[in-house]
Structures are given as C-alpha cells and as structure tokens.
C-alpha cells in the first residue's frame, strides 16, 4: 500500500479544514478584529450618570465616556464617585469648564451672557478647556482624554478654536450624525448620534447598521431615566446594553479615548505607507 507523503498530507489538511477553522486565520480587522466599534458617551456630568448609567454599564462590564463640565455642582459634590468610575475604566472626558455655547445662533435663548461662546476670545475658550483638563487629571490622574464641543459649537468668529487644543487631546467629538469607516473619521470632529426619546429598537438598529458597514458608531446621551431635558428611557438604554453585551464578540465597545487612539494609529500608519 502506498501512503501519502508528508507534503501531500499537509495539502490535504488545508483543503479539508472546516470553514470555521480557516476563518480563524483571517487577517485582523481594524476594530480589534471585530465588525465595528461603538462608543457610549454621556454629556454634562449629571447625577443620573452616577445613579443610573455607571451602575448599568458596570453590571454588564461595559465602559463609556463621561464628558464632564468642570463647574458642574455634581462634579464637586460627588468627586469620589467620579474617581471610582475612572478607576473602573470609564473615561472622564472634557466638556469645558463652563459649557459655553454660541448664543448668537437660533434657538439659543438658554445661553447666558456669561457663557456665550460668541462673546469669548479664542484664548479664553482655550484656557478654560485647559483648566478643566487640570481638574480632570486631579480626579483620575490621566493625561490622555478626549474633548466634546459644548452644543457642538466649534467656531468663535469663524475660527476653529480646537486647532489650538489638538496637542491637549487625542480627539474631539462633535454632534453631526453619521457612521464612518476608520479611514474617514475626522479626529477633530467625530460624528455622533444625539439620542432624545428614541426607542431601544432604534438604538439597536443603529448598532446593526454599524455592524453591516464596519463603521464607528458614537452615541451621545444626556439624561438616562431623567435628569435632563434631552432624555432616553432606562428601558431603551438597558435594551441597547443587553444587545452590545450579547454581541461583544462582534462589537468593540470602548471609551472614546481608546477608540480614537486606535484610529489615530491606523490613520498615521496609512499616511506613512506602512
């Protein structure tokens, strides 16, 4: 009887390997070898972040980004809780010291004269953001973090003030909705979906769209279960977290700073031809 040679055996094993076995050898994808990336962000440092959101995230071992306003009374009153959140892997992002918004725009009657970005100088805006970074570092001891534009406002007198802040941050989150592949993400103005009253089915469907397109999806929450005029029900938020946890093999869920660092490294390698 003629037995196959070792070379022939090797070829036979490769040809008869199961599809699942061959799939395990595929090249890693851009999102930590997962279908897409999802970032959960929560603005304004409100009590519901500490009372509802962080316990919900911790219960399913997911991590988010909390954009803190330095002057928020909830930061001062509950500083040890924010520190513990950072220790558990949540990002404390920078949402400016005073949360200034452009009061010259339509629908901005809520903007006070003291916090009107249109009356700021560039140096004042930059200085207040940097002061907030000092406060955040005192809370979590970290130097790498991301920024979120208050009200999504990026300009003062036609000048993009974040240009001076790029060395201080890994990236900045904006408020324009959209899914983006890694190569198209603008680290100075990352897209996000502002959530206000949508259902859990809507939130999950956004994730499914990101999975199909291999894109980055950023959620922008304010109130969760109350505490803010922009709000999502606890049940809808819980449905989203359950879906993300159930599909964590396929979805990379991480704080904005970690995802932005991955994007920055990938874009840098691409631009250098590596």
Structural summary, described in words:
The protein has one domain (30-271): Glycoside hydrolase/deacetylase (TIM Barrel, Alpha-Beta Barrel), CATH 3.20.20.370. Helices cover 38% and strands 14% of the residues. The protein has helices spanning 6-16, 19-23, 47-59, 73-77, 79-87, 122-140, 200-213, 234-246, 256-271, and strands at residues 36-43, 65-68, 91-94, 147-148, 155-156, 159-160, 172-173, 193-194, 216-221, 223-224, 231-232, 251-253. InterPro entries: Glyco_hydro/deAcase_b/a-brl (IPR011330), NODB_dom (IPR002509), Polysacch_Deacetylase (IPR051398). Residues 36-254 form the NodB homology domain. Keywords: Signal. Residues 1-23 form the signal peptide.
Looking at the structure, the CATH topology is TIM Barrel
The arrangement of helices and strands along the chain is HHEHEHHEHEEEEEHEEEHEH
CATH class: Alpha Beta
Task: Say how many strands there are.
Answer: 12
C-alpha termini separation: 52 Å
**Unreliable residue runs:** 6-28
Keywords: Signal
Domain NodB homology: 36-254
Protein name: Chitooligosaccharide deacetylase
InterPro entries: Glyco_hydro/deAcase_b/a-brl, NODB_dom, Polysacch_Deacetylase
Task: From the structure above, extract its key features.
12 strands, 274 residues, globular, single chain, 6-stranded parallel beta sheet, two-stranded parallel sheet, 38% helix, alpha/beta, TIM Barrel, 9 helices
């Amino acid at each position: 009887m003629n037995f196959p040679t070792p070379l022939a055996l090797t070829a036979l094993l490769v040809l008869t390997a199961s599809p699942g076995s061959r799939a395990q050898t595929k090249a890693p994808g851009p999102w930590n070898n997962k279908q897409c990336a999802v970032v959960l962000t929560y603005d304004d440092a409100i009590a519901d972040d500490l009372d509802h959101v962080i316990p919900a995230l911790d219960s399913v071992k997911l991590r988010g980004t909390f954009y803190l306003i330095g002057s928020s009374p909830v930061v001062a009153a509950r500083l040890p809780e924010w520190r513990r959140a950072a220790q558990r892997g949540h990002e404390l992002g920078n949402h400016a010291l005073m949360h200034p918004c452009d009061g010259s725009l339509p629908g901005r009657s809520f903007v006070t004269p003291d916090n009107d970005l249109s009356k700021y100088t560039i140096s004042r805006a930059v200085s207040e953001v940097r002061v907030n970074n000092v406060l955040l570092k005192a809370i979590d001891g970290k130097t790498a973090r991301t920024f979120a534009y208050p009200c999504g406002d990026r300009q003062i007198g036609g000048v993009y003030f974040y240009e001076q802040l790029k060395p201080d941050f890994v990236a900045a989150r904006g408020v324009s909705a959209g899914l983006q592949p890694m190569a198209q993400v603008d680290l100075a103005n990352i897209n996000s979906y502002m959530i206000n009253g949508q259902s859990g089915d809507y939130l999950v469907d956004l994730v499914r769209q990101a999975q199909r397109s291999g894109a980055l999806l950023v959620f922008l929450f304010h109130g969760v279960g109350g505490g803010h005029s922009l709000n999502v029900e606890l049940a809808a938020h819980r449905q989203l977290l359950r879906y993300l946890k159930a599909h964590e093999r396929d979805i990379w869920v991480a704080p904005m700073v970690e995802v932005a660092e991955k994007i920055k490294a990938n874009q840098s390698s691409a631009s250098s031809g590596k």
